[in-house]
């Protein structure tokens, strides 16, 4: 839904799809988008990819991502996607209300968020492509792709690349069931 007024539930539009919500973005100068990442029609990774693009296209808008917080790896991944505010699905109403009424903007940071190249590598890995094919398709040195992948693994505090692949598989699973 969207929030345009200082009161939590006033002037809220609830949409069933992200596409319908995006159609409403031009109607207001500043919008707060509240998305439950695991209850959209798309997979979680597709939703995160779209929200990343929205955060760059509409930087004045705040995007709140509601997600379960049991999976710390997935949570770190979501925080690194873009300037998204993560809100735990288990948050009490008072906390949720405070976060929505007094939002603290999240700024894109090269140190804490995935770069454009890192995101391209992640999306290509998510499609099942090999590191060599990623390097040739994006005209990058193979060792540079390996280096970037190592930085991603390090940023997410994973032990090995296989954990990253497993994480991407989980985020690409059905969107209706939250990751456990």
How would you characterize the overall build of this protein?
The protein is an alpha/beta fold and 180 residues long. The protein has a 5-stranded mixed β-sheet with strand order 2-1-3-4-5, sandwiched between helices. Strand 3, helix 2 and strand 4 form a beta-alpha-beta unit. Helix 5 crosses helix 7. The longest helix has 14 residues. It is globular.
Tell me the structural class.
alpha/beta
Query: Which value, in Å, is the CA radius of gyration?
Result: 17 Å
Q: Counting H and I runs of at least 4 residues, what is the number of helices? A: 8
The secondary-structure element order is: EEHEHEHEHHHHH
Spatial strand arrangement across the major sheet: 2-1-3-4-5
Helix content class? 40-55%
The stretches of 5 or more residues where confidence is low (pLDDT under 50) are: 1-7, 176-180
The separation of the N and C termini measures: 25 Å
Instruction: Tell me the strand percentage band.
Output: 5-15%
Quantity of strands, as a count:
5
Biggest sheet layout: 5 strands, mixed
**Whole-number mean pLDDT:** 81
The shape, in one word, is: globular
What does the secondary structure layout of this molecule look like, with pairings?
Layout: E1 2-3, E2 12-13, H1 18-24, E3 32-36, H2 44-57, E4 62-67, H3 72-81, E5 85-88, H4 93-101, H5 116-126, H6 131-137, H7 142-155, H8 161-171
Parallel strand pairs: 3-4, 4-5
Antiparallel strand pairs: 1-2, 1-3
Helix pairs in contact: 5-7, 6-7
């Amino acid at each position: 839904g969207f929030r345009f007024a200082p009161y939590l539930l006033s002037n809220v539009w609830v949409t069933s799809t992200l596409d319908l919500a995006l159609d409403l973005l031009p109607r207001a100068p500043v919008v707060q988008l509240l998305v439950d990442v695991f209850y959209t029609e798309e997979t979680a990774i597709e939703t995160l990819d779209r929200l990343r693009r929205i955060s760059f296209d509409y930087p004045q808008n705040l995007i709140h991502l509601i997600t379960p917080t049991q999976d710390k790896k997935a949570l770190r991944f979501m925080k690194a996607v873009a300037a998204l505010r993560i809100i735990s699905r288990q948050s009490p109403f008072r906390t949720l209300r405070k976060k929505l009424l007094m939002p603290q903007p999240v700024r894109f940071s090269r140190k804490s968020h995935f770069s454009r190249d890192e995101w391209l590598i992640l999306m290509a890995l998510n499609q099942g492509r090999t590191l060599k094919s990623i390097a040739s398709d994006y005209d990058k040195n193979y060792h540079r792709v390996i280096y970037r992948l190592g930085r991603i693994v390090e940023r997410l505090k994973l032990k090995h690349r296989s954990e990253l692949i497993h994480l991407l598989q989980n985020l690409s699973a059905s969107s209706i069931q939250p990751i456990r």
